[in-house]
Amino acid sequence: PAEPVVLGIETSCDETGVGIVRGTTLLANVIASSMDEHARYGGVVPEVAARAHLEALTPTLDAALAEAGIALDEVDAIAVTSGPGLSGALMVGVGAAKALAVGSGKPLYAVNHLVGHVGADVLADEPIEFPTIALLVSGGHTSLLVVRDLVDDVELLGETIDDAAGEAFDKVARILGLPYPGGPQIDKAAVGGDPTAIRFPRGLLHPKDAEKHRYDFSFSGLKTAVARWVERAEDAGEAVPVADVAASFREAVVDVLLTKAFRACADLGIPRLLLGGGVVANARVREEAAARAASQGVTLRIPPLSLCTDNGAMIAALGAQLIAAGRAPSGLVFGADSTLPV
Ligand code: KG4
Ligand code: ZN
């Protein structure tokens, strides 16, 4: 039988994404972001995000169908992110997907956002190999997974116990007087800075945390350390060396993220690492991940950025995998679950 055409809807955070795939082939990936509307608050405002999804969803859906060059009739199934994410934002996508499924008579699949990030990689040219360790880092999550099978064997190894990595970038950017979103701003500000100028703390890397938090992350202490450092400099009447602070902060984040990810590869004997989420856009993350992968004999996979940040194509791709595995549709009796486990 021909591979199913699946339409995926993603509204877990501030990106309204509609993607269309045929099996593992990408047909369309359209994203509308409400990032600009959140900029003046310095972070994503849930209520604003939900409202923006409501406005953006129909045009984004139309644009995706146009990009794929197909009519809704030609879609075989619909997939939607049911969690984790912001409740109000998720509800918009789930409601729309249900309406679409009922109206069109297509089967509906509820999918997990985090597993979707990994699922994006099936759209890459080279087939993804399992098992793989996956590190997902964005403004909303910092999760380390071991994925033995996309459909029924995904295990959460660890996650952040406070701020997400992207959130730390956003907060530190604000401390340095840089606009939102902070990640790209810190990348820019760090150019020419000395990453060893200031030794900022590495959260949960201490041996005393080795047992309980071996694969977990913490960034709020780092953020506070940067704030204190900047305050002290200002109180002393010194000019804040923004490039050095940005580079040193970024180095601390990258060090923790990659130390834990490669530790998981070594501990579990899995020489494969997949990266996903908006923070993967970071220049140092990419550079240092490539260097550590080469020296530790790990195969590194980083999907194109358009598939790393939140998008509908990854949700469609995971939906297609569920269908290929013979999974029954989810029906209509499921809700948005902001804390949905993998
Ligand atoms: O995956 P994403 O687009 O959306 C969600 O958060 O769900 O990720 C956005 C996050 C923001 O926190 C942003 O600051 C961060 O990714 N980010 C970066 C970079 N570009 C975006 N963080 C570090 N370096 C970057 N170059
Ligand atoms: Zn995400």
From TrEMBL:
The keyword Cell division does not apply. It catalyses: L-threonylcarbamoyladenylate + adenosine(37) in tRNA = N(6)-L-threonylcarbamoyladenosine(37) in tRNA + AMP + H(+). Its cofactor is Fe(2+). Its main location: cytoplasm. It is found in: Cytoplasm. Its EC number is 2.3.1.234. Keywords: Acyltransferase, Cytoplasm, Iron, Metal-binding, Transferase, tRNA processing. Required for the formation of a threonylcarbamoyl group on adenosine at position 37 (t(6)A37) in tRNAs that read codons beginning with adenine. Is involved in the transfer of the threonylcarbamoyl moiety of threonylcarbamoyl-AMP (TC-AMP) to the N6 group of A37, together with TsaE and TsaB. TsaD likely plays a direct catalytic role in this reaction. This is tRNA N6-adenosine threonylcarbamoyltransferase. The chain holds residues 153 to 494 of 506 of the full protein.
